[in-house]
């Protein structure tokens, strides 16, 4: 993982600026604070220039970063490439964020602080 992105991401997760959500990069709530998956926070940190690239590749139809809606569950390839984060790591982080009750040993959702520590220790 890109060490500069890692530091930005860990700091953002610990900042209290983002409210944690589940199963979507960003879940918007009109008139209320949006909720973010840990991977949605990563998308918010990506350079604005990636918006056009992601749109050109067909990932999204509207504003990509700091905009209306990112309904997917994983970052578009341009963001993953910028961050230097492989898909298997994205899956692990999504599982930590959302939990997984379908596993033989269920995984409970983890807080942003716990996810930030995982990123710090393992990526």
Q: Can you put this structure into words, describing what you see?
A:
It is a single chain. The chain has 123 residues and is mostly helical. The protein has one domain (3-122). It is built from 6 helices and 3 strands, in the order αβββααααα. It has helices at residues 3-14, 38-45, 50-56, 77-83, 87-98, 112-122, and strands at 19-20, 26-27, 35-36. A 3-stranded mixed beta sheet has the order 1-3-2. Helix 1 packs antiparallel against helix 6 (112-122).
Oligomer: single chain
The H-and-E topology, N to C, reads as HEEEHHHHH
Structural class computed from helices and strand pairing: mainly alpha
* Low-confidence parts: 60-70
Q: What is the CA-CA span between the terminal residues? A: 6 Å
How helical, in percent, are the residues? Answer: 40-55%
Please report the total strand number as a whole number: 3
User: Would you tell me the overall average pLDDT?
Assistant: 83
Contiguous helical run count: 6
**Rounded to an integer, what's the Rg over CA atoms?**
14 Å
């Amino acid at each position: 993982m890109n060490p500069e992105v890692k530091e930005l991401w860990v700091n953002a997760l610990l900042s209290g600026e983002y409210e944690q959500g589940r199963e979507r990069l960003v879940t918007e709530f009109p008139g209320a604070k949006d909720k973010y998956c840990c991977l949605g926070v990563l998308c918010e940190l990506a350079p604005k220039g990636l918006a056009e690239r992601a749109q050109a590749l067909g990932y999204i139809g509207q504003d990509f970063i700091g905009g209306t809606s990112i309904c997917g569950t994983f970052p578009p390839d341009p963001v993953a490439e910028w961050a230097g984060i492989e898909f298997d790591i994205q899956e692990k982080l999504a599982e930590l964020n959302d939990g997984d009750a379908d596993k033989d040993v269920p995984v409970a959702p983890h807080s942003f602080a716990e996810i930030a520590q995982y990123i710090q220790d393992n990526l």
